[in-house]
Amino acid sequence: MKKLFWVILLIVFIAACNRKTMQKGTEEKSMNTSQDIILYEQITAIDAKKIMDEQKDYVILDVRTQSEYDASHIENAMLLPLDDIDEEATDILPDKDQLLLVYCRSGVRSKEAALQLAELGYTNIKEFGGIIDWPYDVVR
Questions:
Q1: 37 contacts: CB under 8 Å, gap ≥ 6
Q2: According to the model, what pLDDT value does residue 107 have?
Q3: What global pTM score does this model have?
């Protein structure tokens, strides 16, 4: 039984080492390991709120579905569902250097969205997880 535990632990460790991300402090930056290009930056909800309070030129991007957005969303967030990014992003977000603050429900879709946006040429993407971890007010 102990041997099985160590084998599982080793597999988890190896899998974690193979991720395409690099930890730096409390920030996580997604990397394209073949070219060492930072695709997007993962920040906390607190960091995202600080940007919202202190800066002006940014877009809050909600990548959930229309029904999820209608139920609740962060104030001033723009809806661009994950499934529509490839077809609609360049029309909705013409400035590829604009700061994009990306979120979803739990953080899974927002990471995928951040990668898709980076692949489309967007250069200033900060992904801050899910609305379930957002400790501030939302629009209902």
A1: 31
A2: 98
A3: 0.77
